[in-house]
Amino acid sequence: MSRVNPGGYREAAAATLRDEPDVRDSVGSATRTFDAHRRTAYGAIDVERWRDWARDVKSHALTHLDDYLEQAERALLDRGAQVHWAETAADALGVLDAIVERRGVRSAVKGKSMLSEELEVNAHLERLGVRPVETDLGEYIIQLLGEPPSHIVGPAIHKSLEDCRRLFHDRLGTPLSAEPDELAAAARHALRAEFLAADLGISGGNFLAADTGTLALIENEGNIRLSTSLPPVHVAFVGIEKVVPRFTDLAGLLQLTARAATGQPIGNFVSLIQGPRRSDEVDGPEEFHVVLVDNGRTTLFADDIAWEALRCVRCGACLNICPVYRQTGGHAYGWTYSGPIGSIISPGLLGLEEAMPLPNASSLCGACTDVCPVRIPIHELLHHWREEAVAEGLAPRGEAFGSRLYAAMATRPGAFRAGGGLLRHTPWPWIGRSLPVLGGWLQERAAPKPSRKSFLKLWDEGIE
Ligand code: SF4
Fold first, then answer.
1. pTM for the whole structure
2. CA-closest candidate to residue 311, choices 50, 47, 62, 38
3. Of 5, 99, 208, 460, which has the fewest CB atoms closer than 10 Å, so is most exposed?
4. Are strands 214-219 and 200-203 parallel, antiparallel or unpaired?
5. How far is CA 63 from the centre of its chain?
6. Nearest 5°: CA angle at 387, between 384 and 393?
């Protein structure tokens, strides 16, 4: 069954807040920690220059996408890789079908990959009779729980240490008092056998350098390195937007991504993969497949405004700072990508109708834009999708009516003054509590008292 359900956002968010109060604590605490580390790591470099540079590199690659993708393909083929072009999720999964059948694959180890979540690779492998095993610790936890990731970088961010202790006690036999190191050791022990037995390794790709055909992968646990080098076949699912022009671009992009994601100067492990094992190498797969996946990206690129979302390097910094995401974590968003990036990329990849109401899941405070390492104007893109929703008749009728009413008043000075006066003399605590949306807000908060004189009156009297 498909997990795509952004339309259920409001109900899912309300249910999380009502039924799972621990989620808000776990997510809030973890995202604040991530964000504090990011701030320190940004402060150690001339980050504004880095962000300008990263924006320009990614934008240049996106506006010359066909050239760089073909260049990357040639370089990969020259080094013995096999390249597949997948227009849709079904095309990408079809590549797996052929490999599984030809190689008799029974089990697969996976590195963390949001694209593989988007494609629902695990469910597909299970349908093929293949046992997929997530090897990133956070992904491993949520796979044991049968849940999707809640965060791009920290998939199990919504779980507390107590949750993990109970889970590992039940599934791996660790003591209920086990410390995090003991839990990690138990997972490592269980996964070691999986790495050695796997017929197939699956990864995503952080970047693909066109000039050398180098697939760059960044991680902290070493599990991606094992997943991509121990099994005899490695399949990398790579979104077409991940291509960058030069091998030398990787140095800056990998560092900036790590700083934005976890506050590290660079990830603990960086793998630069250029092909299958050569005759003089001791490890590496016999076959290396790169699946270049579109799955809606070309459609998103055709949007004159929203295309900038394709610069995303999936660092999760915008999730960590988002006051809305912090309340519920990622599951409420109903699809692979959550938080601010989910709210701007899902309408492009799924279609706006399917993705509503995600563009409204934001206060438009702009904090996400301030932290994005590739300068995606996230709050402007949220606004863009809201405008599109109104234009396509997808916005709630009351909201569209309210916007039209405000526009009509704001463009007529007399009406604006009269409306302002009326609002200033309205007994808000009494009326407000009975209104939809505003009523909920005022149950928890006192409406500020209007000032004695309106701003327009003060303006007329000559305030500076
Ligand atoms: S939109 Fe920017 S901040 Fe958010 S995940 Fe993507 S790159 Fe990171």
1. 0.91
2. 62
3. 460
4. unpaired
5. 22
6. 140
Q: What is the pLDDT of residues 352-402, one digit of tens each?
A: 999 999 999 999 999 999 999 999 999 999 999 999 998 999 988 877 788
Which residue's alpha carbon is at the smallest distance from atom 7 of ligand 1? 312
Say if CB 154 and CB 34 are below 8 A apart: yes
Q: Is the dihedral of CA 351, 352, 353, 359 positive or negative?
A: positive
Ligand 1 mean position to 132 CA, how many Å?
28
CA–CA separation, 283 and 316 (whole Å): 32
pLDDT at 464: 62
Residue type, 354: E
Q: Check pocket membership of 253 for ligand 1, CB cut-off 6 A.
A: no
Using the atom order of ligand 1, give the atom closest to the CA of residue 316: 5
What the chain holds in terms of domains, given with CATH numbers, is: 66-297 (3.40.50.10420), 413-460 (no CATH)
| Distance of alpha carbon 211 from alpha carbon 374, whole angstroms | 21
Residue 1 pLDDT exceeds 70: no
SS (H, E, C) the chain: CCCCCHHHHHHHHHHHHHHCHHHHHHHHHHHHHHHHHHHHHHHCCCHHHHHHHHHHHHHHHHHCHHHHHHHHHHHHHHCCCEEEEECCHHHHHHHHHHHHHHHCCCEEEECCCHHHHHHCHHHHHHHCCCEEEECCHHHHHHHHHCCCCCCCCCCCCCCCHHHHHHHHHHHHCCCCCCCHHHHHHHHHHHHHHHHHHCCEEEECCCEEECCCCEEEEEECCCHHHHHHHCCCEEEEEEEHHHEECCCCHHHHHHHHHHHHHHCCCCCCEEEEECCCCCCCCCCCCCEEEEEEECCCHHHHHCCCCHHHHHHCCCCCHHHHHCCCHHHHCCHHHCCCCCHHHHHHHHHHHHCHHHHCCHHHCCCCCCHHHHHCCCCCCHHHHHHHHHHHHHHCCCCCHHHHHHHHHHHHHHCCHHHHHHHHHHHHCCCHHHHHCCCCCHHHHHHHCCCCCCCCCCHHHHHHCCCC
Determine whether the shortest distance from the Cβ of 342 to ligand 1 is under 6 A.
no
* The two structure tokens encoding residue 282: 């001791």
Name the residue of 151, 314, 375, 381 to mutate for ligand 1: max ligand atoms within 8 A of Cβ: 314
What distance in angstroms lies between residue 394's CA and the mean position of ligand 1's atoms?
A: 26
CB atoms within 10 A of CB 293: 27
